[in-house]
């Protein structure tokens, strides 16, 4: 695939000498820590508990003195106890899946939306996209950050945006063909599915369209899948990364496809040993911990996002100096990503247990059929709820499916099974069978 280097969106920042970038990061970190210490009782209490004041941050390495934040902290502060900006400065809310039924609400000031857009605009430009491009955004629009995140950035670089969102794949393909779409933002599995449906419609993405760039992320994928997408569809697969707690989709690889450029003026990434939480060296794989350096409404300091990856600090062939993140190869928790949506087994349990007929055991089975994920949940009924009446069982099954869908935002087929038939575990229950091959 072509590697032509494109102009920078913000050359002064993107090509900044490493030493200057690190000084800038330290300045931003110190001001962030002072801000949260002065204006948030949560942060102040946690820093006091660790015997810390903002004056203890002398260098970037001192970040390790600061306490971690976890998804539980976000959940415990639902809906907006973390917000640092006054309510009248919040211009948008998004929500991300939590580990139980409750989502995490993230608020944005105008500056937060602007920084998010700037971050992704730099990334899109680094792939070679610009005003001549037509970008179809096939990520969900709504509380999920994918759709609007790509939308704003694509508009900012002057591209024409097609806000297709998800669903109606045939129409998506017609739009790609008829409007001369050059880039598509989607999950990698959706792009593969789209390729299959296009073939069924007698359309070759490679030969009959000008789609050449896939902005792909929101779920794990592999180099093997990238090769398939590139060879079969003729679409350059660009790995994109972000998370709703951070803002949304924020970063991507450049046209060299050698790791995701993490704009250091917006974020500071640490990779830690998964057990000891000691910092790891460059290239060493461990748990990713993220500090967002400029967020106003919803700051995050040393957030344990749960992803496993490694970092590279060498200047990229494109000339950009910012750190690069390797592919995400796993999770430290049991989060699953199904059709780009995060799912925790604890959320499934939470929803199932609101049904009085449901027993103690369940099993989640995830498959990838025809490029798309499908999820099935086998649910044991309580002995007293088991009946020979198919109509009665169907009614229960439909209700469970409906409740799961509204908790998870993704549909799951439920199979009701007799009490005592699912596997029992002496140690940690293995509730998930993931049969997907990436
Ligand atoms: P969300 O908050 O729904 O945007 O989900 C964020 C999570 O999606 C991240 O913490 C990752 O686990 C996953 N994710 C996002 N982009 C990628 C990617 N390019 N590769 C692997 N996992 C990803
Ligand atoms: Zn690069």
Topology at a glance:
Elements: H1 11-14, H2 18-39, H3 41-49, H4 71-76, E1 90-96, E2 104-109, H5 110-126, E3 134-137, H6 146-156, E4 160-162, H7 169-178, E5 183-186, H8 188-200, H9 205-208, E6 213-217, H10 223-233, E7 236-242, E8 249-252, E9 260-261, E10 267-272, E11 286-292, E12 303-309, E13 311-312, E14 324-325, E15 330-331, E16 336-338, E17 341-343, H11 345-352, E18 358-369, E19 372-381, H12 390-408, E20 413-417, E21 432-434
Parallel strand pairs: 3-4, 3-5, 5-6, 6-7, 18-21, 19-20
Antiparallel strand pairs: 1-2, 7-8, 9-14, 10-11, 11-12, 12-15, 13-14, 16-17, 18-19
Helix pairs in contact: 2-3, 5-6, 8-10, 11-12
This protein binds adenosine monophosphate and zinc ion.
Zinc ion binds at residues 254, 256, 261, 316, 318, 320.
The appropriate CATH architecture of the largest domain is 3-Layer(aba) Sandwich
Number of domains: 2
- Percent range of helical residues: 25-40%
Strand order of the largest sheet: 4-3-5-6-7-8
Largest pleated sheet: 6 strands, mixed
Radius of gyration: 23 Å
Basic shape = globular
Bound ligands: adenosine monophosphate, zinc ion
Mean pLDDT: 95
Question: Helices and strands: which structural class?
Answer: alpha/beta
CATH superfamily of the largest domain: ANL, N-terminal domain
Specify the number of helices: 12
Overview of the molecule:
With 438 residues, the chain is of the alpha/beta class. The protein folds into two domains: 333 residues, Rossmann fold, CATH 3.40.50; 102 residues, GMP Synthetase, Chain A, domain 3. Helix content is 31%, strand content 24%. It has a six-stranded mixed β-sheet with strand order 4-3-5-6-7-8. The longest helix is centred in the first third of the chain and has 22 residues. The protein is globular. The mean pLDDT is 95. The structure holds adenosine monophosphate and zinc ion. The site of adenosine monophosphate (AMP) has 16 residues, from strand 7 and strand 12.
């Amino acid at each position: 695939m072509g590697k032509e280097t494109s102009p920078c969106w913000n050359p002064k920042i993107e090509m900044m000498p490493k030493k200057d970038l690190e000084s800038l990061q330290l300045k931003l970190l110190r001001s962030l820590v002072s801000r949260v210490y002065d204006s948030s009782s949560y942060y102040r209490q946690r820093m006091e508990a660790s015997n810390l004041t903002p004056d203890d941050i002398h260098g970037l390495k001192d970040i390790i003195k600061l306490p971690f934040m976890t998804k539980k902290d976000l959940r415990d502060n639902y809906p907006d106890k973390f917000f640092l900006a006054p309510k009248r400065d919040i211009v948008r809310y998004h929500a991300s899946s939590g580990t139980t039924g409750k989502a995490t609400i993230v608020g944005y000031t105008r500056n937060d939306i602007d920084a998010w857009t700037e971050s992704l605009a730099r990334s899109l430009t680094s792939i070679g996209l610009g005003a001549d491009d037509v970008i179809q955004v096939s990520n969900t629009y709504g509380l999920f950050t994918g759709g609007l995140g790509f939308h704003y950035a694509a508009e900012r670089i002057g591209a024409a945006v097609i806000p297709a969102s998800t669903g109606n794949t045939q129409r998506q393909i017609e739009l790609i063909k008829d409007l001369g779409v050059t880039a598509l933002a989607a999950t990698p599995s959706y792009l593969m599915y789209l390729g299959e449906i296009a073939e069924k419609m007698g359309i070759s993405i490679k030969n009959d369209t000008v789609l050449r760039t896939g902005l792909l992320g929101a779920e794990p994928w592999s180099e093997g899948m990238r090769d398939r997408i590139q060879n079969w569809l003729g679409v350059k697969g660009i790995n994109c990364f972000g998370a709703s707690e951070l803002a949304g989709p924020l970063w991507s690889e450049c046209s060299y496809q050698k790791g995701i450029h993490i704009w250091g003026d917006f974020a500071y990434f640490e990779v830690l040993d998964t057990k000891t939480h000691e910092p790891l060296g460059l290239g060493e794989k461990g748990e990713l911990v993220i500090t967002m350096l400029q967020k106003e409404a919803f700051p995050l300091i040393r957030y344990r996002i749960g992803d496993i990856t490694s970092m590279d600090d060498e200047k990229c062939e494109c000339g950009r100096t910012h750190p690069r993140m390797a592919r995400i190869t796993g999770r430290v928790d049991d989060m699953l990503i199904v059709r780009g949506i995060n799912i925790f087994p604890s959320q499934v349990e939470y929803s199932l247990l609101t049904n009085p007929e449901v027993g103690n055991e369940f099993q989640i089975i995830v498959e990838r059929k025809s490029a798309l994920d499908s999820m099935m949940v086998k649910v044991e009924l309580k002995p007293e709820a088991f009946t020979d009446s198919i109509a009665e069982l169907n009614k229960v099954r439909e209700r469970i499916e409906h409740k799961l869908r509204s908790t998870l935002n993704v549909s799951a087929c439920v199979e009701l099974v007799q009490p005592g038939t699912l596997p029992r575990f002496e140690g940690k229950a293995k509730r998930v069978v993931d049969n997907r091959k990436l």
